[in-house]
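Encode chain A's predicted structure.
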Amino acid sequence: MTKIIYVDPRNATQTVDLADGTSLMQGALASGVDGIVAECGGNAMCATCHVYIEPERMADLPLMSEEESALLEGVAASRKSNSRLSCQVKVHVGLEGMTIYVAPAQ
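Encoded structure for chain A:
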């Protein structure tokens, strides 16, 4: 299990233990984290699971696909250099203690 810290749009913090291979989106939904809509169920088709990753931890993530990048162009909250779709990031031990900020609008 890997500890992930979620911060919702109201700045409420929730630390959860997630199994490796679980997406950040699945973990947020299963743990009741506010702000993740996930309209497409994690199929990278809607961009309603937009999150901001701690900038210093971006190197711990796999590279973003062209499809994910294109979807992030149309997100409701501002796209930033640390924006990701939480459905596209799978948990692994290297993410231990990472803080994920849920975008203020989906």
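The beta strands are 2-7, 13-18, 50-53, 83-85, 98-102.
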